User: Which sequence fits this backbone?
């Protein structure tokens, strides 16, 4: 039994032809045509009947059909209304699937309820143009979300999973890592998609990190990280003075209080060190 009846080239082509669909590059429409990859996504996502799932960009329903078989209920958010008739076919055999026609960047999180509650798992082959934004947004704005298992461009997976000190580590990494940590990854060849993308892909699993700090402090930490990385080649102190708007006296006091050497570069600070600095800045 395949994980998804659509995860092969002939079935995908047949659906596209039957519905007269032309693929839209602008919406990142690269559909999965490899059932083995669908199975590996399911294995990494580790779903069960009690897991309410959120899928972004169901497309013609390739991954959706597999998610319906592996989880209790799915809400799928698709921006391209031309795909809804094809998704209707998937819904016919998956009564607990809700399709929401919306942009994942702006959809209200209160509209994402599944039949068994708010989503706890995000599982998606994401449109690459908005992947980084969408993952951070749902960890920030959907408190029920415990994990995300997402196909993204491999460079984006590198940024999401980067450790301090490397070129991929930046303000985005710090913001995401305050909320979630990487917990598994595999590479996906370009030939697994129709049409094949021009970039390499990877599936990354992220798991929520429960933090005790109040949301306001995490938001202040995010702003501080933006300022620290605004000019990567400057020292931490100079970058913060130039971009945070907080004034050199406050910056120096916070660096001193936390024992942080202001001559360091932003990319050497761990997320926890950014939190400590934001705390010291009040
Ligand atoms: N899930 C399908 C699969 O794995 O074959 C399709 C994945 S395809 C990479 C990305 C999907 O996201 C497309 O169906 C596209 O129309 C949809 N999409 C693009 N931008 C979107 C957005 N901002 N919000 C919701 N869906 C979007």
Assistant:
């Amino acid at each position: 039994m395949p994980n998804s009846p659509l995860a092969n080239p002939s079935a995908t082509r047949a659906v596209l032809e039957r519905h007269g669909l032309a693929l839209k590059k602008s919406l990142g429409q690269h559909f999965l045509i490899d059932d083995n990859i669908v199975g590996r996504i399911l294995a990494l996502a580790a779903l069960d009947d009690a897991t309410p799932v959120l899928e972004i960009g169901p497309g013609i329903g390739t991954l959706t059909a597999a998610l319906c078989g592996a989880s209790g209920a799915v809400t799928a958010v698709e921006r391209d209304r031309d795909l809804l008739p094809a998704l209707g076919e998937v819904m016919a055999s998956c009564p607990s699937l809700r399709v929401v026609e919306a942009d994942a960047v702006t959809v209200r999180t209160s509209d994402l309820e599944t039949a068994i509650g708010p989503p706890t798992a995000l599982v998606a082959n994401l449109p690459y143009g908005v992947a980084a934004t969408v993952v951070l947004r749902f960890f920030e704005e959907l408190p029920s979300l415990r994990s995300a298992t997402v196909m993204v461009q491999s460079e984006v997976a590198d940024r999401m999973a980067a450790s301090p000190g490397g070129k991929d580590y930046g303000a985005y990494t710090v913001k995401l890592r305050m909320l979630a940590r990487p917990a598994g990854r595999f590479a996906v060849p370009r030939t697994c998609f129709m049409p094949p993308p021009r970039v390499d892909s990877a599936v990354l699993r992220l798991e929520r990190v429960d933090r005790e700090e109040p949301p306001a402090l995490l938001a202040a930490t995010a702003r501080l990280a933006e300022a620290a990385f605004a000019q990567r080649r400057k020292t931490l102190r100079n970058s913060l003075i130039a971009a945070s708007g907080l004034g050199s006296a406050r910056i120096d006091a916070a660096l001193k209080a936390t024992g942080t050497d202001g001559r360091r570069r932003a990319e050497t600070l761990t997320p926890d060190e950014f939190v400590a600095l934001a705390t010291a800045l009040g």
